[in-house]
Write a structure and sequence with these properties.
The complex is a heterodimer of chains A (249) and B (274). With 249 residues, chain A is mainly alpha-helical. Chain A has 12 helices and no strands. Chain A folds into 2 domains: 199 residues, no CATH class; 49 residues. In chain A, helix 1 packs antiparallel against helix 3 and helix 3 packs antiparallel against helix 4. Chain B is elongated. The longest helix of chain B is centred in the middle third of the chain and has 29 residues. The termini of chain B are far apart. With 274 residues, chain B is mainly α. The chains are: A mainly alpha (249), B mainly alpha (274).
């Protein structure tokens, strides 16, 4: 058990420690973590199912300016092992994931506060002219600090394991479980709202509304949606170009 | 402009600097200086090579590249390329002031973060997820990995391309990339595709429905059926737009917004409304 807990802790460090940002960004998706956690606990299909279900909550996982709206890595690394061991249904796994997603944001804030200290250390070594030492404070030390911050909570939670999580779930009244599950169904909205804000252009907002209600009524596959969207965009760009030429002239 | 560019920096130096940037970018992020240390980490060896005969200049350069910096780590790579090219020319005695380098860095990081975050995270990371996660739900392990692979190929490829482009084109790169009609058109098309898809995704994944009923004559009618008759998925639409308005009006207070959502969802469930 202790080895399994350590492995899950390691997975979380890889996913949120952010060394090789692109890789960790792709790795920290619950649907990916689910496969690996499933591998650790000897049930890939179960891990995949829980992971994919939790993933639905974080479809629009945008991180504008390094602010994570919710920590999907922590949500996955706490909820999936507990769900596999306790044989929970997917809804309960989501209800468990929601509060931990929030907790992960706090870890990120602690991390960024600690890193300020490395800024001042780096400044001191620049002043002394020891530039090779500066590099240590730029990557290795913050990365190891991440390791402690990210590995520990997941390791402990997985190690204490099912009994604690199970009794926790037994104690929670049903309305609270359902409430958390409902919150889990509403929370994807945050990711999408955030994406709308980051995409910026308010004049294009009608395309969001169009996509929303077309899908609500017709319910086509996402690939079909992408094709429709691309055609719309190309048609619109014909007009946009002509407009801007008029303005320039 | 210089006709024949003398070159001290090799392709290998560039590759290492790019790799270090990708490796470190979000690791030493802090509240006060954001990605400053990661930028410095990427520049460190390059600056030592360029200014090896001039300790004073080297110290100044180190200071300026360990100052506040924050951008999208994929699209922002072009800034590194440009910075290296400018620092190289400066070290070779060309008339390029530190202020010019700094203002280029600071001026570019914002717009590139905006474009980069919306294209990379809004489109390249999100749309494949939307297509493949339903397959993963049905038990396909390959579908679980495909969205990540697509994202990786795109971001490593594009950032290395921009990094080199920034170096070879130097300061003109900025104008060329940002003001060319082509890129503007591509971004416009991408924005529309993205927004339309976010609409589809919202309608698909945000789920709120009421379980309230009311008496109509002698029959009991579910309020949700009435709502669906008027405008399908009206409640999820309100939730997304509500959050959108909250973020635009109150700023990026995600944690508070999530807590509100949880409290409201639990309260509504408790009172038997949803």
């Amino acid at each position: 058990m202790i080895i399994k807990a350590a492995l899950v802790g390691l997975l979380y460090w890889i996913s949120m420690g952010r060394a090789q940002y692109f890789f960790s960004f792709a790795f920290r998706k619950p649907v990916v973590l689910g496969v690996f956690i499933g591998l650790i606990f000897g049930d890939v299909q179960a891990g995949l199912l829980y992971g994919a279900t939790i993933q639905l909550m974080y479809m629009g996982g945008i991180e504008a300016g390094g602010n994570i709206p919710s920590d999907q890595g922590l949500a996955a690394c706490i909820a999936i092992p507990a769900a596999i061991m306790g044989n929970l249904d997917a809804g309960a796994a989501v209800a468990l994931a929601v509060p931990f997603g929030v907790l992960g944001v706090l870890i990120n804030n602690v991390r960024r506060t600690i890193n300020s200290f490395y800024n001042t250390k780096a400044d001191a070594y620049i002043e002394k002219g020891e530039y090779d030492k500066v590099s240590k404070f730029s990557f290795v030390l913050p990365w190891l600090t991440n390791g402690v911050l990210y590995f520990t909570p997941v390791f402990i939670a997985t190690w204490l394991g099912t009994s604690v999580v199970q009794s926790f779930i037994n104690v929670i009244p049903e309305w609270l479980m359902n409430g958390l599950a409902n919150a889990g169904n509403m929370l994807p909205a945050l990711g999408f709202a955030l994406t709308l804000v980051v995409m910026g252009k308010q004049k294009y907002l009608p395309f969001f509304v169009l996509g929303f209600f077309l899908y609500a009524i017709l319910g086509f596959s996402m690939l079909t949606g992408a094709v429709i969207a691309l055609c719309l965009a190309l048609i619109v760009s014909l007009f946009v170009q002509e407009d801007s030429q008029e303005v320039d002239a | 402009m210089s006709e024949v560019k003398k070159s001290v920096i090799t392709k290998m130096d560039l590759l290492i600097a790019w790799f270090k940037w990708c490796l470190a970018v979000e690791v030493p992020v802090s509240f006060d200086r954001m990605q400053a240390l990661a930028f410095g980490y990427s520049m460190n060896k390059i600056l030592q090579k360029l200014y090896k005969d001039d300790p004073e200049e080297l110290k100044e350069a180190m200071k300026r590249h360990h100052s506040m910096f924050n951008t999208n780590c994929d699209w922002g790579s072009i800034i590194h390329g440009i910075t290296i090219s400018l620092e190289e020319q400066r070290s070779l005695g060309e008339d390029i002031s530190p202020d010019m380098i700094q203002s280029l860095k600071l001026g570019l990081m914002g717009p590139l973060a905006g474009i980069g975050d919306s294209v990379d995270q809004g489109i390249v990371a999100t749309i494949p997820l939307a297509i493949f996660v339903p397959m993963a739900l049905e038990g396909s392990v390959i579908a679980a990995f495909l969205p990540g692979l697509i994202y990786l190929v795109w971001s490593y490829g594009w950032s290395w391309f921009l990094f080199q482009k920034g170096y070879t084109l130097g300061r003109n790169a900025v104008l060329e990339i940002l003001h060319s009609g082509m890129i503007k058109k591509v971004i416009d098309v991408a924005s529309i595709v993205g927004l339309f898809m976010i609409g589809c995704l919202s309608a698909s994944y945000v789920k709120v429905s009421t379980i309230l009923t009311y008496e109509s004559g002698s029959t009991t009618v579910a309020l949700q059926d009435t709502l669906d008759g008027i405008l399908p998925k009206f409640l999820p639409f309100c939730v997304v737009m509500g959050m959108y308005l909250y973020i635009t009006k109150r700023g990026p207070k995600y944690l508070r917004l999530i807590c509100y959502t949880m409290v409201i969802a639990i309260a509504l469930t408790f009172f038997g409304i949803i």
